[in-house]
Amino acid sequence: MSPLLSFIIVLIGIYGLVISKNIIKSIVCLNITQTAVILLFLNFGNLSDGNIPIIHDSSINIVDPLPQALMITAIVIGSSITALSLIISIKIFHYYGTLNWEKLLEREG
Amino acid sequence: MAFIPIYLIFIPIIASMLVYLLHNKYVNYIIFAAQFFVTLLALKYYSIYNGLTKAQILSLGNWEKNIGIVLKNDQLSIAFIFLSIFIWWIILIYCWNKRKNDFKFLFFLMFLEGCFLGLLQTNDLFNLFVFIEIITIISTILILYKKDGYSVRAGLYYLLFNSTGMLFYLLGLILIYNVSGTLNIDITAQKISVIKDTNFIKLGYIFIMAAIGVKSAFFPVFNWLPKAHGAAPSSISALLSGLLVKSGLYAFIRLNDMFKIKGFEDFFFFLGFLTAICGIIFALSQKDIKQILAFHTISQIGMILIGISSSDSKIYIGGLMHIFNHAIFKSLLFLGAGAIINSYGIRRITEIRGVFKRLPFISICMIIGMLSITGAPLFNGFVSKTIIKYGIGKSSTKILMLFIINLGTSISFIKLSQIFWGTSARENHKNINVYSSMLLLTIMCIVLGIYYKPIIMILFGVNISYIHVFKIKNFISYIFTLSAGYIIYRKAIRKDHEIIQYIRHINISFGATNFLLITFVFIMILWEEIGKFL
Fold first, then answer.
1. Cβ within 8 Å, pair B155-A96
2. CA gap B133, B143 in Å, rounded
C-alpha cells in the first residue's frame, strides 16, 4: 500500500511542476517530488518487523541499511539545491520585479 | 600507484580549497601545479597498465564489490579523462589573465574538474547520481557568475530543470536496486542479464534514459541548454558545451552497456535526427552569436546520439570520435566568440562586421573551427561524420537524413561567417593567453583530422584502416553541400522572414518543459509497448 501512496505523491509533485507559474511554487513542488521519491525508496527497504542491521548479530530478517544511507545523501543534495534556487530567485526578483515564469521569459535581455 | 584514480579526483579539489582558503594571488598558481600533477598521474596510470586494455577496478576501503564504492577505469574512461584534462588546460590558459586574482571563480572551476573526473571513473549507480548533481550545482554557479539578470534567469532554469530530470534517475535507480540488490554497475549488468521478468527493468531503463535525455539535451527537453550556454561567461560556455554536456552522453554509453536492452536502437536514431534538425532550425533563426553556437551543440548532440546508440561497431566508433571532435571544435568556436564579443562589445551577428580585418588570427582559428563543424575534409569533424556514414552504408533514407543535417549546419555557418566580411580598424592589443589556447585547439583540429587512424587505434584499440575517408567523392560532396547551402542562404534565410522571427521568439516556459519531459517518458513507454506487439 505505502509504495503506491508515495508514488501518488510523486505524481502530485510532478503535476505541480507542470502547472505552477510561480518560481517559488516550482521550487516547493520540486521539493515535494524529491521527498516522495525518498519515501518510495525507504519503503522498498523497509520491513515492518525486521531487525536492526549491523548491531544485531543475527543476519536473519534484517532491514536493508543501504537505502537509508543513500537517501541521507539524496536529502543533503535536495536541500542544497533548494537553498541555491531560493537565493537565485531572490536575485531574480531584484532584477525583474516578478517571479512569474511567463512574464520573466518574455523579457528581453 | 594503484590509488591514482583517487588522486585524480582529489588533487584538483584540494588545490581549489587551498585557493579559496588562502586568498593569496601567488597561491593561485598552485592550480597549475595541480593541473600538471593530474596530467602526469593520468599519463603514468595509462602507461603502467598498458593503455588499460584490461579494465582496472579499485575498491575503496577493501569492501566487497557489491556493497562498497568502486572506481573503474577502462579505455573509454581514460580517453575521456585525457580529453577533460586537456580542455581544462585550455580554459585555464584562456581565462588566466582575466581571472588570476578571482579566487572564487578558480575554486569552482577546479572543484568542477575533480567532480567531473570522479564521474568518469565511478562504477556505482548512486555515485553517478551524486557526481551529476554536484556538477549541476557548480555549473549553475559558474553560469550565473556575471550576476546580470539574463544569466541569473538562465541559471535558475538550468538548475531546476536538471534537478527535475535527475529525480527520474532516482526513480529508475529505485526500480533497478529493487531487482538487483546492488548498485555496482558490473554486478547489476550480470544480474539483469539472467532475470526473465523484465518489465520492472525496462521501466527503470526508461526513467534513467529520460533523466539522461534531460542532462544531455535530447529532442523535446533541450530547452535549458541554449539559455544556459548563451548566458555563461565565454570560457565557461566552452567548458559546458565542449565537455559538461558529454557527462550525460558518457552516462548514456555506460548505462546502455549495462542494460543491454534491445529495441530502442531505431528510437534513438530518430530521436537523434529530430534533435539535430530542431537544433539547426532554431540556430538558423537566431541572431546572437553565442545562441547560434549553443543551438549547434544540440544539433551535434543529435549526431553523436545517432552514433553512440547504434549496435554497429563502426557507427559507434564514429559517434564516440565525434564526442571528442565536437569537444575540441566547439570549445574553439566558443572561445573565439568570446574574444570577438570582448573586442566589439556586442553579440548580434547582424552588427558585427569586419572581424577578419580587426582580429586576423582569431578569425583564422574560427574559420578552421567552422570548417571542422561543417565537415570539411582534412579537419576532424569530417572524419567522424564519414565513419558514421560508412557504417550506415546503403540505407538511403538514413543517408539522406545525415545529408539534411549536414546541409543545415553548412547554411547556418555560412550565415555566421558573414561577420568576417566588411571593414573595421585593426586592433593592436594582443592577448597571448587567448591566442595560445586557441592555437592549441586549432592544431588539435587538424591533427585529429589527418592522423585519426593511429589516434583511434591508441585511444579505443579499434582498427579502422579499412575505411578510406579521403575519397574524391567526399570532397565533391562537401563542395556540393556548401554551395547548396550558400544558395539556400541567399534565397531563403538572409531576409528576416516572419516565420524566422516567429521561431526566434518561441519561449517554452518552465511548466511546459516539464510537460515535455513527461511526454518524453510516455513516448518511450509507448514505443516499448508497440515493440511488443510487432
1. no
2. 15
Query: In B, which residues are within 8 Å of A10 by CB distance?
Result: 171
| Of the candidates B34, B10, B32, B30, the residue with the CA atom closest to the CA atom of residue B19 | B30
The distance from CA B449 to its chain's CA centroid, rounded to whole angstroms, is 19
The DSSP output letter for B122 is B
Coil/strand/helix, residue B184 = strand
Handedness of CA B314, B317, B321, B322 (dihedral sign): positive
Q: Looking at chain B from residue 135 to 164, which residues have their Cβ under 8 Å from any Cβ of chain A?
A: 136-137, 140-141, 144, 147-150, 152-153, 155-156, 159-160, 163-164
Q: What is the number of structural domains in chain A?
A: 1
The reported pLDDT for the residue numbered A75 is 92
List pLDDT tens digits, range A43-97: 876 666 777 776 766 667 777 778 888 889 999 999 999 999 999 999 989 888 8
In terms of Cβ atoms closer than 10 Å to its own Cβ (0-12, 13-18, 19+), residue A108 is: exposed
- Measured distance CA(B17)–CA(B177) in Å, rounded: 35
Domain that holds residue A102: 2-49+63-106
Measured distance CA(B227)–CA(B154) in Å, rounded: 5
Give B316's Cβ-side CA count (13 Å radius). Answer: 14
Provide DSSP, A5-64. Answer: HHHHHHHHHHHHHHH--BHHHHHHHHHHHHHHHHHHHHHHH--TTPBPTTTSS--SSBPP
Q: Is A87 inside a domain boundary?
A: yes
- pTM, two decimals, is 0.93
Asked whether the beta carbons of residue A85 and residue B160 sit closer than 8 angstroms, the reply is: yes
**CATH number reported for the structural domain that contains residue A100 in this entry:** 1.10.287.3510
- Residue at A56 is within a domain: no
